[in-house]
Amino acid sequence: MIRQIPPLVKIRLDKGYEGTARRHPDRSVEQPIKGKRNHKVTVLGRAYNYLLSSLRIYVEHHFARLQKFGILREVYRGRFSDHEDLFCLVSGLLNYRATARFSLV
Questions:
Q1: Confidence band (pLDDT; 50, 70, 90) for 102?
Q2: Do 71 and 62 touch, CB atoms closer than 8 A?
Q3: Is the pTM of this model over 0.90?
Q4: Tell me, what DSSP letter sits at residue 39?
Q5: How many CB atoms neighbour CB 80 within 10 A?
Q6: SS3 for the chain, per residue?
C-alpha cells in the first residue's frame, strides 16, 4: 500500500505502524515518538507528537464519518468491483459536506 503513494508525499502514521520508516527508507514517514521502558518522552517529543496528532485528526475524523455510513464498519456484501466506487462516492459526499456546501441533516 505504501508503495502506491508517490515518493514526495509525506506519510503520517500513528504509533501502531512502528518500523515502517525502516522498511521504506525511500519514503518520508512521520510517526509519533514513543517512550521507552523507564524513559519518558521528552518535552520536545511531546510537542512533536502534539503537532503530528493535530495534523492527523482530520483524517481520523473522516474515517469516523465513514464508519457512520457503515462503509468501513461492516463487511461489504456487494460485488468487490463496486466497493471502491461506493467508498469514493461516500468520501466525496463527506468531503463536499466538510466544505460546508452540503448538509446531510
A1: low
A2: no
A3: no
A4: B
A5: 7
A6: CHHHCCCCCEEECCHHHCCHHHHCCCCEEECCCCCECCECCCHHHHHHHHHHHHHHHHHHHHHHHHHHHCCCCCCCCCCHHHHHHHHHHHHHHHHHHHCCCCCCC
And the C-alpha cell for 15? 504509533
Residue 103: the pLDDT is 59
Residues 70-96: tens digit of each pLDDT: 777 788 788 888 888 888 888 888 888
pLDDT at 48: 92
Handedness of CA 83, 86, 88, 90 (dihedral sign): negative
